[in-house]
Amino acid sequence: MTTEAELWAPDEAVADTGPRPPERPRDVEAERVLVATAIMQPAAIDELGAEGFDPADITSDWLRWTWWAIEELRTHFRDGELKHLAVHRQLETWHADGRMPTRVPDADQLMELCNQAHYGNANWYATRVAKKAVAARVVALGYDAILKGSSPAFDEDTDVASLQTDLDGAVRPTDDDSLAPIGDLLLDSIERATTPPTNNDRVPTGFIDLDSLLSGGWAPGQLVVIGARPAMGKSTLAADFARGAAIRNKIPTLFESLEMSKDELSDRVLSAEARIAHHHLKQGIATDDDMKRAARRAPDIAAAPLWINDAALLSLPILRGRVRNLVRTKGLRLVIVDYLQLMQAPRAENRQQAVAEISRNLKLIAKDFGVTVIVLCQLNRGPEQRTEKKPQVSDLRESGAIEQDADIVVLLHREDAYDKESPRAGEADLIVGKHRNGPTATITAAFQGHYSRFCDMAVS
């Protein structure tokens, strides 16, 4: 009779130098009970499969092959048949064919295994096995991180990004959780049809007409691209979106400023909120009236859940880690990146592929963490070569993937940026050129450059 110890595959030899692989977390007792229950109740195979159980999570080779044998035979068992004998024959056949690399348990051992079946508790034992599998993936990832970090060939872009992706996959090994019957989805659709969205569902933009067009504001999981030519005020508009969310609605917001310093952005926020001329702030000549308005707005600004980072370099792994931390600790809902072309690009064959990689990963960050990601993007010279100068979605610079990945594209245009004598001086167009889940339109806003802000026309 083969002993239990002989059925375990021997560990591979480990070199005496360097870190040793840690022992893999496992719950052999739960694995044995689970497989035993499957032998006695083969229907459990389909039931657990429907719940997302993966037999690859079974660490014992012979138990895993036993499970696969039950899968093969579950529709062929005859009434009154000793199932463990049929399983034994199947394993012997696979071993003889060279399919099964581990030793075959003998019939007595399978019969003894059957005595450990726990009828009606298969789900509980499957959960124990799956939990240990997640722990094993995390431990293996930690060992991989040690090896990569200790290697002279360590590359912070590719290696950190790879580890980050693997870490996310450790807790989401399959897509089974995304499956849902249409009946359940339909009930949610009907409820949404009769329940207007609130600030719990949307992030207000700070502009009444834009909120109306977007059914209440930015939605979780969306990638929003704000495109404009240089000097149009896209950084100012981004600060307005941050103010509308964090200061006016107390929604946790992260502003990644790759162009402006934290001090400059803070000055702009104060100028816009307190209606203090921006050049007064820069020159230190604010009036007494200015300071009274600043004192009235300061408490709300100071209490706003707005975090600003002005580090010169921002890579995708760093952004993903920061978003994960703020989602977990602060309930982050809005991320603003100013701007895409200044982000640290991953290695790629050309600039277009690098920008496409950034764009795709920004969308994944929005989707994975349930936040809205607004990224600013420069446009090419297309608008300047047209008579009316208005930008188009096709003017997005360097990669068509930006347009493809974006749920919403807002193009910022000001006629007075090209013609100081324009009859529309002081006005700005927010051209919603792409809206994946709704209509497109052009929203007219007021541009108050001296206050470093855009605002609704009615406010101006």
List low-pLDDT spans: 8-16, 172-176
- Portion in helices: 40-55%
Compute the number of helices: 17
- How many β-strand runs? 9
Question: Which band does the percent of strand residues land in?
Answer: 5-15%
On the 0-100 scale, what is the average pLDDT?
81
Give the termini distance in whole angstroms: 88 Å
Radius of gyration: 30 Å
Order of SSEs: HHHHHHHHHHEHEHHHEHEHEHEEEE
Question: Quick one: overall form?
Answer: elongated
**Order of strands side by side in the largest beta sheet?**
3-2-4-5-1-6-7-8-9
Structural class: alpha/beta
How would you characterize the largest beta sheet? 9 strands, mixed
Task: Outline the secondary-structure elements.
Blueprint: H1 4-7, H2 28-40, H3 43-50, H4 61-73, H5 83-96, H6 107-114, H7 122-150, H8 156-171, H9 182-193, H10 208-213, E1 223-228, H11 234-249, E2 253-257, H12 262-274, H13 278-283, H14 288-303, E3 306-309, H15 316-330, E4 334-338, H16 351-369, E5 372-378, H17 401-405, E6 408-413, E7 427-435, E8 441-448, E9 453-456
Parallel strand pairs: 1-5, 1-6, 2-3, 2-4, 4-5
Antiparallel strand pairs: 6-7, 7-8, 8-9
What does this molecule look like?
The protein is elongated. With 460 residues, the protein is an alpha/beta fold. Helix 2 (28-40) runs parallel beside helix 4 (61-73), helix 2 (28-40) crosses helix 7 and helix 5 (83-96) crosses helix 6. Strands 3-2-4-5-1-6-7-8-9 form a nine-stranded mixed sheet. It has helices spanning 4-7, 28-40, 43-50, 61-73, 83-96, 107-114, 122-150, 156-171, 182-193, 208-213, 234-249, 262-274, 278-283, 288-303, 316-330, 351-369, 401-405; strands at residues 223-228, 253-257, 306-309, 334-338, 372-378, 408-413, 427-435, 441-448, 453-456.
